[in-house]
Design goal:
This protein has 223 residues and is α/β, with parallel strands linked by helices. The chain has helices spanning 15-20, 45-54, 68-78, 93-102, 149-162, 179-185, 194-197, 202-214, and strands at 2-5, 28-33, 59-64, 82-86, 106-111, 129-133, 167-171, 189-192. It has one domain (2-214): Aldolase class I (TIM Barrel, Alpha-Beta Barrel), CATH 3.20.20. Helices cover 34% and strands 18% of the residues. Helix 3 packs parallel to helix 4 (93-102), helix 5 runs parallel beside helix 6 (179-185) and helix 6 (179-185) runs parallel beside helix 8 (202-214). The longest helix has 14 residues, at 149-162. The radius of gyration is 16 Å and the shape is globular. The model has no long low-confidence stretch (mean pLDDT 97). Bound molecules: D-xylitol-5-phosphate and zinc ion.
Amino acid sequence: MQISPSILSADFARLADEAAAVPNADWLHVDVMDNHFVPNLTLGLPIVESLLRATATPIDCHLMIEDPDRWAPAYAEAGAHSVTIHAEAAKAPVRTLRTLRSLGARAGFALNPATAIDPYEGLLGEIDMLLLMTVEPGFGGQRFLDMVLPKIRRARELIRRHGGEIWLQVDGGVAADTIERCAEAGADVFVAGSAVYGASDPRAAIDHLRHLAESTPSTAGAI
Ligand code: DX5
Ligand code: ZN
């Protein structure tokens, strides 16, 4: 069980301090948005490069951008430890995922809430992490979409059938009142923005989320 706090809900003028405020995080989740793939604009490569110098916590880059085939490799080259591209945006996902791995990054593949997992079963051998969005991407602080739970369960089953170690990440509306549902369905990496950086004690919020996830066994069965 891993917790990846999203700095989207942090103070962008104090990113190094905000990273230091969560020493118990497994990852720092960095949401790159281009105002095309999603209707919001956040940050890009120069800030990721600065963050990589400012913290020892591994960086989990979530690219909500058009043309990730063109832009994603630079994040891996910069040293991001995990780089996730979206199924809805990638035109050559196999090539891009292989490039990310060859550059030493973990290769992540993300699906929006309305995108089915089954058409991508054949891609499981190319990825280190599957990200299932539990809100429509673009903004922090949205309400968790329960409709994604059966897909989390299905993804866990497909991953089991495939074998190997593929992490299953959920992102959007993950908080103390929703994380157990995700863990129960088979998620094992939890992104939380407002639930961590909106808390008075972000470090304690992570400990609490981790405790809830770890005390909820997955019931996703084999096929
Ligand atoms: C949304 C981003 C998320 C966001 C989650 O598009 O991908 O990472 O920061 O924020 P919360 O946890 O507040 O829903
Ligand atoms: Zn994200």
